[in-house]
Design goal:
The chain is an alpha/beta fold and 468 residues long. It contains 17 helices and 22 strands. The longest helix is centred in the middle third of the chain and has 17 residues. The N and C termini lie far apart (57 Å).
Length: 468
Amino acid sequence: MLLRYFYDERLAHASYLVGCQATGEAIVVDPMRNIQPYLQVADQEGLRIVGALETHIHADFVTGSRELAAKLDSTLYLSDEGDQDWKYQNLESVNHKLLKDRDTFKIGNLLFEVMHTPGHTPESISFLLTDKGGSADKPMGMFTGDFVFVGDVGRPDLLEKAAGMKGTSEDGAKQMFRSLKKFRNLPDYLQVWPAHGAGSACGKALGAIPSTTVGYEKQFNWALQIEDEQIFIQTLLEGQPEPPKYFAVMKSVNKIGPKLLQENPELSRINSNQELSELIQSGRQVLDTRDADSFADGHLPGTINIPFNKSFTNWAGWLIDYHKPLYILISSEDVLDELMISLHSVGIDYIVGYGLIGQFLEGNSSLESYVNVTPTEVYEQIKNKEVYLVDVRNRSEWNDGHIDGAKHIMLGTLPDRRNEILTDKPIIVQCGSGVRSAIGASILQANGMKNVYNLLGGYTRWVRDIKE
């Protein structure tokens, strides 16, 4: 048997290729939309990918199952659990097998057994894997999807907060409590292969270790230490981070079936300042992907800045309008393919053009900028209410402590709530470290609020330099 692990750091998403070397067949578990890494490994190992498994209808990325089906005529293995609201649609054109609790199927000599594990979502399933080719008669591990992570369990509130299905959070928490009872009955030696690691918004305390065991989680996972159902429900629901706005889009896309990447519009290059200026003036979305310091020093009015780093995909999903054409500005064409993969991974497909930012900055007299300031430099202005302070951190961070007089508008909601900010005084944007607030400053400037500053070091530096 062959087991390979793939990890997308920008989404904190884990997927797996499992192959039977005796028959040359392989399957991918919870595949990412960019299927090239799987194809490459399968080719290197002499394997044929014959199927794709999904543990549930994912909300945080576009799955690659239909890409695999289109390219390889592989079979989709999908959950048939949950009520009618959580059934996959438009499967007529693909080979597929719908699965319920205790169903089994084989890929070569590998036996997969389905275990219905609702809680994160009603249709969530896990897969127990037994290597029959090695004469084993017991499973060696399980793919848990968003059911059990290292040190955490899947959040049950996404249907309510992201998909708008009111009253489902507590029901999901009750289902999770019952699913964990089934998990406790599994043997301690069983390996656990989850679909996410630290940084994912699908839980609140995920560990950064790729895998774990049932026995280890029984001892140290907080969710498996609580025996009282009501206490468990309360603990599970409290402190969950705000689900990114794009989660609702992903749920719908993965349920209905995403379009194939080859169907996306062809990318054109922006070659002149006049062309770019006309795009901005006509209200097109123009995204500058440089680092925050470079953007702060000088940028084109009307552009927003999301630096192409580890958190790029998450904030792009929050802040880009999926229904409007998007143009991207990059420092080098070397990053274009990787950047496009990141945008496509969260379903941002309406990308129609790009440009090399350097050619638009040189000799341009219409550039604008914003200033980075330290807490010491602006302490008196904040104290005397001579400026407006906008805190763009998450709700839990705000509740743990904030600067007196600040207005809390979480960064992902800033485009929709910017009208709540008055403009008769300078505006200082603040987060935990100065990274998210830099994005926030770009959003406000792009929407006409020119007298904007970014607080370097954010609340952490404020506590260090001022509060202490």
